[in-house]
Amino acid sequence: MKYILILLCAGILLSQLSVAQKKTTSTKKGKTVVSVENVNPQKGFVVVETSLGKITIQLNDSAAPKHSANFRKLAKEGFYDSTTFHRVIPGFMIQGGDPNSKNADRNSHGMGGPEYRIDAEIGLTHERGVIAAARQGDQINPQRMSNGSQFYITVTDAKFLDGQYSVFGKVLEGMDIADKIVAVPRDPRDNPLEKIIIKKVIVIE
Q: What separation in angstroms does the CA of 132 have from each of 58, 123, 126?
């Protein structure tokens, strides 16, 4: 099974909230394209409790309704409980949400998820502190559909990913925790040597 990851490899990378707005969207071949950033300030907060602290995120139900609803559903079901941030790259992002990361076999980390994918909702930009969905590469996933559970949080602007991945929210508090996570020692697969556990994700409504 292909390793699910953000397309740009670490080697290339290393060399190189909210006010509601009106939106313009279009749908084509299962993909929703969002032309402007939209945030619904009335709902959507989630708190990701990690072994290093809490990260508060506002999901963007207006611009990415499918991804926001899915993340909230999985959180309520306890899907993310005891998973880890299995991939961290300094100067880029932290990635988590894989149920395989509960297993001792690190070779399986990054390859799991629920038995479904989510239609792309592409349009929001990759600023520092956004949450977006991981996916398989274009060769086997030309529609750029997202993995059903895996997500990443950027620790810096990553504009080179704009137009390629579905951003569905933004960190409101806890970027200092994300910065701690991205800086931990890691193995050659960028998996933290000491597990960074997602204890649970709490939905605030």
A: 12, 11, 8
Tell me which residue has tokens 């290393």.
14
CA distance 149 to 201: 12
**Of 95, 109, 113, 104, which Cα lies nearest the Cα of 165?**
95
The pLDDT of residue 105 is 92
CATH of 41-204, one of 2.40.50.140, 2.40.100.10, 3.40.50.720, 2.60.40.3090: 2.40.100.10
The residue assigned the tokens 């193995």 is 187
Q: Comparing C-alpha atoms, which of 84, 172, 98, 85 is closest to residue 128?
A: 172
The partner residues of 49 in beta bridges, in order of sequence, read: 54, 200
Tell me what pLDDT residue 205 has. Answer: 80
Judge contact between 170 and 56, C-beta under 8 A. Answer: no
* Residues in the chain where the model's pLDDT stays below 50: 1-3, 6-25, 35-36, 41-42
